Predict the structure.
Amino acid sequence: MNWIDRAIGYVSPVAGMRRQAARALLDRRAPPQGRRGFGRGKRAPFGINTGNPDDARPKQYVSRERILRLVAENPFARKALSALLNSIVGWGITGAPGGSKALRTAFAEWIKVCDFQGRRDLYGLQELWVRSMLRDGEVFIAKRWRNNVEGIPLRLQTFDKGMLATWKVGASIERGIEYDGDGVPIAYHFARARKGTRWATDNTIRLVADDVIHLFHDEYVGQSEGVSIFNSVIKRLGDVEEGIEAEVVKANISACLVGFRYRTPTDTGEDESIGMPVDNSPSDQPPVEELVPGMVETLDPGEQITFSNPPKTGGIGDLARIALLASSAGVGVTYEQMTGDLSNVNFSSYRAGALEFKRTVGRLQYLTLIPVCLDRIWGWFLKAGIDFAVFANKPVPIKWTPPPFESIDRLGDAEADIVEMQAGLESRENLLSSRGYDQDEIFEQISTGITKQKAAGLAFKGDPYEPGQMAQPDSSARGDAALAMELARMIRRARAG
């Protein structure tokens, strides 16, 4: 309702109500464009190219508020997002830096205090960043500093999409992002306070691009903003939710059995008791208004009892399954992960379906999250340590290891790994890395464990070295040696004879 409608409604409420009714009728008669245009409005301009970086991909017509409401209220959307987070981040993508022991110790201590807000460690921040990137399409990580703190004062501040000053535009500023002549971001403008707070203003803070990580998964050349994974499925998930709600209402109606009592008119006209309250009915003939099991009721001459025929329920299951299959494909998870329904899969089909999902997760980890975000954070940490003279000025590599996928068939997978290593088709380092472990760390743990067990005089069946294995010679070796000596004696006797 615009100001004209409000003015007309103030002067003439009747005329205002008519205008509102007419506008509602026009909205209903307007052709819906939600399926191909990402909501009502114009269709996505796939073919234009005006030089704007955002023209490399279709415009986002789904508002952030709709996405947030979907994830907050729709259980299937929450389940799909949780499945992706469990696989991409899990307990955290751990980093194993090289270099000196002092550098590794400093990094381990900094991981615990790196959050600018002081709530999470680095692995908790990873979960927050990936959640925001998948849900909103993008997230921003800024390099900040804390005064009067022990160790390296570098801190990481997180800005979600709602904190970007999208209202700030100018000759070289679009959607709160400042570009140079080549279209490369040189600065980001963020709101100083979140909208809705009492101290919220239009004042912004400008951070140079070197101090900001703009984390999003780009799918088009020149793309400068991320797209939520729920953009293509928000309407379909909404249809599923509305269909289930309608089916519940229909089931409630079907459970209602209504009886209608019919009396024939008397000779003098209508029965005077029809439509009268129960209390005013004759005491000798109380009306029957309920049914109980085993009841036998004698009706008066001309009376009839008829019952309603409620509609039958059913049929929503197949439609919901098809819609959820399409929604899970659009989000990037399997149907079983989005719904938790494992009734239509067996062991082999579940494993086969998980293979492509693992590749999708690995692609996001190694092509987006690690190079765009984690490697830059490691570079910030190294530079901060060098600037504050914590360690020497030299490049130090780091190896990021994502969490492993739990094996469904541990015995079969372990036997297959052993066969591949024996055949020279796979290395122990690659297998350990695929399970989320670092080879040097595992070898150090095994060596330390063996040393402690030997010192304590303990041994277990699963140990690499069993008791007495190295101290006593092998029985087969003793037999081979005895056979060799006997052959030598026989040869000497033959020569002497």
About this structure: Residues 30-42, 50-54 have pLDDT under 50 and may be disordered. The radius of gyration is 36 Å. Residues 383 and 389 are 10 Å apart (CA to CA).
